[in-house]
Design a protein that fits this description.
Oligomer: single chain
Strand order of the largest sheet: 1-4-3
Number of strands: 6
Strand content: 35-45%
Shape: rod-shaped
Mean pLDDT: 93
Largest sheet: 3 strands, antiparallel
Structural class: mainly beta
Number of helices: 0
Radius of gyration: 23 Å
Length: about 110
């Protein structure tokens, strides 16, 4: 499964000592430092995952436990194509299909095909 990149999570601004944690299957790719109220995560595996954060407020207090934000990472689709694998030169009417009821179909035909 290709990685799902650019997922941004945010908490309250103006705090200090932010401590960001992502569950297994995720990697922090931007932000997430002790002075940052945002973190960008790349999710590498599907399933139930989480992002958590804790920080120190303006009074110098830190929560007893970080807040945990649940994330469901869905697997990417794996399209299939059905149709004749062997056809004659200049033949017409060759029909190829893929899964119905999806969106964003993009068909690419190799050079030499019409």
């Amino acid at each position: 499964m290709p990685a799902v990149t650019g997922n941004i999570y945010t908490t309250e601004a103006g705090k200090s000592s932010y401590l960001w944690t992502v569950s297994a299957g995720g990697t922090i790719t931007a932000g997430g430092g002790t002075g940052s109220n945002t973190v960008t995560v790349t999710w590498n595996t599907p399933g139930a995952r989480s992002v958590s954060v804790n920080y120190t407020d303006g009074n110098g207090c830190t929560a007893a436990a970080p807040v945990v934000y649940p994330v469901t990472v869905n697997a990417l689709p794996v399209p299939t194509i059905t149709g004749s694998a062997a056809v004659c030169v200049n033949s017409t009417g060759n029909v190829y299909t893929t899964e119905a009821a999806m969106t964003g179909y993009t068909w690419v035909v190799s050079s030499g095909a019409l």
